[in-house]
């Protein structure tokens, strides 16, 4: 199936659209003449994003916690009612917390898995039938190079959630392509991008303790420094996503070397039996 060639007049839904990569995706879609529904759990950021993006085209903000399937159903209903159709869905909202293995509480595990994995799954389950009924469309699920790289210090829940997004998205893509579906799937797996991800705990639910172990704090400080120095601009990532939708390409790899190095390390581990040493985030 070819991808979407003409974006003008079409409609995109972007979760986590109030900041970072999601905001850049919304902006890029508007520049192509699409209308956009941005969904986010952070109300003030959502309001500011809608206000600043409105100059570029028709955009609505829908307060949505992607962990809640009823909220995602409401997002779909609102997009259909106010924008008339849905063609592209970016399941992009994500969070990060962690620490040394036994310091990570069950509530922290559930928060990361609920947003990063079940949030993406909710988006696929709610929007896939709408896209199919609409004559076709495209789903973009945001993972990370963490989907290919295990053993990153203090980031075990994030890594597990992104492996899950990768596995689910690959299975969905293979199933839909084999069935001749009119819906394409892409997996976005970036390395460091200049966003507010290192400050993801700003959206931490009250029952999740702050991850402030000394080792964890150092990892986050290093990641923030690496991202500030050499991270990609979100707009560059958004351009790559647009091309993937246009060409119906599955893997969107803004940092291809980091993705393939992670796979290579695991292949070497399988071949030699020797696990690689702990990695630092962003390396
Ligand atoms: N920035 C990076 O270096 C990087 C690298 C790899 C992958 N990613 C992934 O990119 C995606 C976007 O993150 P970003 O880097 O733009 O960070 P960001 O923090 O700037 O944006 C994430 C957005 O998701 C929203 N969000 C958080 N929890 C939510 C929930 N429960 N429901 C709805 N919205 C929620 C936040 O309010 C925020 O607006 C994430 O999935 C992240 O894991 C980021």
TrEMBL record:
Keywords from the named record: Oxidoreductase
Pfam family, one: adh_short
This protein's record includes keyword Methyltransferase: no
Record-annotated Ketoreductase domain positions: 10-196
Matches recorded under SMART domains: PKS_KR (SM00822)
Family under the similarity heading: Belongs to the short-chain dehydrogenases/reductases (SDR) family.
Stored PANTHER family: BLL7251 PROTEIN, RETINOL DEHYDROGENASE-RELATED
Protein name per Swiss-Prot or TrEMBL: NAD(P)-dependent dehydrogenase (Short-subunit alcohol dehydrogenase family)
Species the sequence originates in: Paeniglutamicibacter sulfureus
């Amino acid at each position: 199936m070819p991808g979407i060639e003409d974006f003008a007049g079409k409609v995109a839904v972007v979760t986590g659209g109030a900041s970072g990569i999601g905001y850049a995706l919304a902006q890029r879609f508007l520049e192509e003449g699409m209308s956009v529904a941005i969904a986010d759990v952070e109300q003030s950021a959502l309001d500011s994003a809608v206000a600043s993006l409105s100059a570029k085209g028709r955009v609505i903000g829908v307060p949505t916690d992607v962990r809640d399937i009823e909220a995602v159903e409401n997002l779909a209903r609102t997009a259909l009612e106010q924008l008339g159709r849905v063609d592209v869905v970016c399941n992009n909202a994500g969070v990060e917390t962690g620490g040394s293995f036994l310091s990570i509480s069950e509530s922290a595990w559930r928060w990361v898995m609920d947003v990063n994995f079940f949030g993406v799954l909710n988006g696929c389950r709610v929007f896939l039938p709408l896209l199919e009924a609409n004559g076709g469309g495209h789903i973009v699920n945001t993972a990370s190079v963490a989907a290919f790289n295990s053993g990153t210090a203090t980031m075990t829940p994030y890594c597990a959630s992104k492996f899950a997004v990768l596995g689910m998205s690959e299975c969905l893509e293979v199933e839909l392509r084999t069935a001749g579906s009119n819906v394409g799937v892409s997996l976005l797996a970036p390395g460091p991008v200049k966003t507010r991800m290192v400050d993801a705990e700003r959206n931490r639910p009250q029952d999740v303790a702050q991850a402030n172990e000394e080792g964890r704090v150092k990892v986050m400080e290093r990641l923030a420094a690496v991202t500030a120095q050499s991270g990609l601009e979100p707009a560059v990532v958004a351009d790559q996503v647009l091309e993937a939708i246009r060409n119906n390409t599955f893997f969107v790899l803004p940092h291809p070397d980091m993705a393939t190095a992670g796979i290579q390390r695991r292949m070497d581990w399988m071949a030699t039996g020797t696990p690689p040493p702990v990695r630092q985030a962003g390396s």
